[in-house]
## 1
Amino acid sequence: MIWYPYEQMKTMHPPYKIIDAEGVYLYTEERKLIDSVSSWWSVIHGYKHPELNQAIEDQLKKFAHVMLGGLTHEPAQRLSEKLQSWLPGDLDYCFFSDSGSVAVEVALKIALQYYMNRDETDRTMILSLEHAYHGDTFKTMDVGDDEDYHFVLKAYGKNPDIVHIPTEIAALEEAFTKYHDRLNCFIVEPLLQGAGGMRMYDIAFLRRARELCDRYDVLLIFDEVATGFGRTGNRFVADLVLPDILVLGKGLTGGYIGHAVTVATQRVYDGFYDDHPEHALMHGPTFMGNALACSVALKSIELFERDDYLSKIRRIEEITRREMQDFSDPRIKEVRTMGACVCVEVYDPSDIRGYQQFACERGVFSRPFLNYLYAMVPYIIREEDLVKVLRTMKAWFGRNSI
């Protein structure tokens, strides 16, 4: 029996069984559904893309996977070279893993060991954001700020080495004044906090964070697992403010295979590169650099560049703002739009209970959570389908048919 994610198995609604998928559509035996959440924000090119399929098939004829321990292969080499040339600044050194959560674990491990390698053993603290989400593994839960994981606090108590702050410059400056000599890193989801409620904040906060990290020699980590590959309207937020460590996942493979990468600058890499064996990064996921994943990631990046996906995302944002302009309801706290993300936050979670079934009956798959009703559509979506997604959201509040 499948144990499903984020569900109380005893009371959960039976999941919709998908028998096929193509483009932006999921097919059950009864319905065709527009996937408004891109399979947890990853299927940026849609389903069954012929070129992505072909990239997998071509590599499969050679081999599906070999370990990177003591071995290497062309797809991993080509992907690391592509990322080195494609990413901003000197984000040149790629450590592959098999999920975004693991890639964040690697980033946090790198940040701590970077200072341990320099015998700066007091730098054990991490600065993070309120409402942060960085994954479901234990250290990522530690730096996250999600009430769903507060059972960890009950078991172990609050970690004194983790400090959470709001996305306010005054709070940022206060934290650095107080903790700067004990911090090894500041980790953020830049501009858009996903599972914490699709919260959006200004680039000025990140620019000030970069200045303070430089002043106090603290590593800045951008978790762009959700925000990377255009979701905020920027190719990467790292194009606007350069972090020391960048984490990518989800859209990296176009949602085809679980794969992620932790990318470090020259300065960080040099902190491990010497004659001391104990200074090496001792980490190695079995499926890091999987050949199928690297092959499809290369094709995914090619599509993103060749087909000018940033213009597609600008169009998605333009249509979304047009459709959601002046939309309000007494139950709605705020409507937020950034790039290819829109969120309707309500005051009371009960006000969106039942929306998933409502949307399904109208040909849209959605997965609201807590008091957030949102859409993060595949970038290939046609205007008519995007409008249908948005008008379904609005219809819920008026209970009007569309």
## 2
Amino acid sequence: MKLIFMGTPDFAVPCLNKLIKSKHEVLAVFSRQDKPVGRKQVLTAPPVKICAQKHNIPVYQPESLKNSNALDIICGCNPDAIIVVAYGKILPESVLNAAKYGCINVHASLLPKYRGAAPVQWSVLNGDKETGVTIMQMDEGIDTGDILFVQKTPVGINETSEELFERLSFIGADALLTTLEMLENDKVFPIKQNDDFACYAKKITRELSPIDWNSSAFDVHNKVRGLQTWPCASTVINGKTVKIHKTALSDKIGNKAGEVVDNKNILTVCCGDGKCVDILELQANGKKRMDTTSFLLGNNVEISDVFGE
């Protein structure tokens, strides 16, 4: 097939790489505009653009796809399909209908569950045991199009959203190639989404960071996993806000939510259900991320101290 690829972040790169190495031809790549990154605000190209340029594929970064120039470029390529992976822009109807097979999206959830901006994080935050990738025929709604192919995968009890993102990016690449093969052989049977089971994965914000120690140990552990690597779960220790990077479910039992039960090399903290979590890695303000043993060498945390107060 002759393809146009639309994508921006790291998540989309495995799909683009897979297409480049396949029998298909990527005629052009559309990506978000370069943006300032880091303290020095260095203007930086998105990962998809960097990947495309390495393979000498033309890259376009229009502010909007609603202008005639963008549509002229797309139509001039005469693509069989437009592949969309975390592009980050709304596609107008003119673009949705610009290819023989329309626009095909790689979405990191089992639709209709987790439509929207942050499906991977919310899958981990909610403690799902299973997630996956849905290959979808795009329409004018937000992740509402017909399902073309689904690939499921279990979620590890300690797997972070960052780790799951990476796994799903490669699962999505394989699923995309399978779907294209099925399309070429008329073996795709689109399935309408059941809106009754839809839920929206709202954008992740810093306001989600503070840990509520009245929650269950499982929920606290999921928050730490789900908010990696941004914005990270946090709590107050001796009056100072500290990021919590890694936890594990503990077999210890406590009495008061937020209370330190053990402070020998690890910090074991009681949660609202009486069960505990072990804090394994954390980061004080202005310091580097470190294991708890190192943190305790420079910070006095006593048994019966209460976090979050």
## 3
Amino acid sequence: MPTQEKIDQVAQIEECFKNANACWLIDARGLSVQQSQTLRRNIREAEGHMHIFKNNLAAIAIKNLELPNMDELLVGPTAFVYADGDVAAPAKAIKDFAKENEALEIKGGFMDGEVLDADAVKKIADLPSKEVLIGMLLGVMQGPLVGLARCCAGPMEATARAIQAIADKA
């Protein structure tokens, strides 16, 4: 018979999964308290949040939400990092922290209805931020229009230069 505390924890896990755009699973064994606080702060600054739940309660919440099976990731101590906004920012915060602290291990994650392995999470962490990607897209879209404007203005510029050259000679 499940206790009310466990039922509440499962409900909290379900709420976190529902509200997050992605969830990254990490093993933070071996981190000191200060390192854990630094990791949490870095994740918070990247618009994410980190929780540690029991694996069996997380598995129940995953099953209740009819999400793909993540049993292979729910082995050993697991911390859940939820991305509220940009999914790459918390992944980047985790990856950068893992470079400095070998005790942190990226297990994998969950995004867009798919379970991802650790390599996929690291690739997502390497992506530019959402704002940079939007800027790149706008640059690509604007390029042909700028070229067309220059092409259309070319004859007028040439005529103006020719008139200016004649005026300079006179």
## 4
Amino acid sequence: MTYADFFAEIKGKFMEADVSDIQDHLAYQFNIKGDAGGIFYVEVKDGVLHVEPYEYFDRDAMFTAKAETFLKIASGKLDPVAAVTLQKLKVEGDIGKALRLKELIDSKKK
């Protein structure tokens, strides 16, 4: 899988989220290790979701994992907290805001 293929798939999964009730600012950077390696960010600002293939310097939290781990998390097949416990996901930054990643993933549009 190339980074372009991975990013297209992960962006599609994140864009299914309904963030209209999230008025806090959340900014996450995702560092992909191994195959499909690269960086992307997810930001929620004023109830609007942005997913872009760039580094985000003013981030609240940074996540590092393999592409397959991020795809499982984004599709709801792997809990982010469990991924950290299993050492499949590394988290740096504001842990309180990092924990809200699950809220974002669980907010799929109906």
